[in-house]
Amino acid sequence: MVTERVKPPMVAYVDGKITGFEYDLLQAIAAKKGISFEYQVVDSKKDLLPALESGKADIAAGAITINDERRQKVNFSEPILDYSAAVLVDKSLADAKSFADLKGKSVAVGRGTVYDKMAADYLASGDGKNIVYYDTVWEQVKNLLNHQTQVVLGDSLILEYYLQQNGSHQAVFVQNISFPKENYGFALAKNNTELQQEINDGLEKIREDGTYAKIYQTYWQKNEQR
């Protein structure tokens, strides 16, 4: 198993110990299926899928969106979490009604993510220098709260988690820009269909017995999704 070092609440290493929503799911699945995982760490999300393609890992976690482009290179488990993209902005931009209202503003994103392309397509100025890259979502949010940037594109649940944790009133979600639902999943090496089936079977079992709901509520204090 390969994960990012810092991706709370999905996965993170604290005092040398791994924690997070995806870690808890995997541990619950492992308990159901009688399997175990050895965890490895990469510093950037862009290194996760190459680790599977090169055979250095069997499964990857860290807020990985399931999409057709990635399916060409890796397999995925069934969805583990539903989310939508979201636009978090400095409070002064709360009345924005479209990307056009935000184009050219200073935008924080992660390189190689789905939001990187979104920023380039809809928010980049002529030279693209208004797009600022950070390795972690926390760095993106922190620099927005510190007024170093004005816009963050990201996952609604992860951005919401950071706002809850930091109690800031300096940033708000843009309500007038909506996005379709997306799914996170565990990514797996393309040829490892046996492990893919084990993960999917274990995921189904922890949904059925209520374990998934308990884990979800630990991080978001809401009713279980799906």
Task: Describe this entry's structure for a reader.
The protein has helices at residues 21-33, 48-53, 68-71, 114-122, 137-145, 156-166, 193-208, 211-220; strands at residues 2-4, 6-7, 11-14, 17-19, 40-42, 59-61, 75-76, 81-90, 107-109, 131-133, 151-155, 171-173, 181-184, 187-188. The protein contains eight helices and 14 strands. With 226 residues, it is an alpha/beta fold. The model has no long low-confidence stretch (mean pLDDT 91). The chain folds into two domains: 2-80 and 185-221, Periplasmic binding protein-like II (D-Maltodextrin-Binding Protein, domain 2, 3-Layer(aba) Sandwich); 83-173, Periplasmic binding protein-like II (D-Maltodextrin-Binding Protein, domain 2, 3-Layer(aba) Sandwich). The strands form three sheets. Strands 8, 9, 10, 11, 12 and 13 form a six-stranded mixed sheet that branches. Strands 5-1-6-14-7 form a five-stranded mixed sheet. A three-stranded antiparallel sheet has the order 2-3-4. It starts with a strand and ends in a 6-residue tail after the last helix.
